Amino acid sequence: MASKKYSKTKLAFFKKSIESKLDDVVHDLGDIKNNLDQSTKDSNSMSQNSVYSVHMADAGTDSYEREKGYHFMNRESDYYKHLTKALERIEDGTFGVCVICGNLIPEERMMEVPNATKCVQCKETEKLNIWYGMHFLHLLARDLKDHSIIGLIVIIVALDQWSKWAIKTSF
Question: Tell me: the pLDDT tens digits for 59-68?
Answer without folding.
Answer: 777 788 888 8
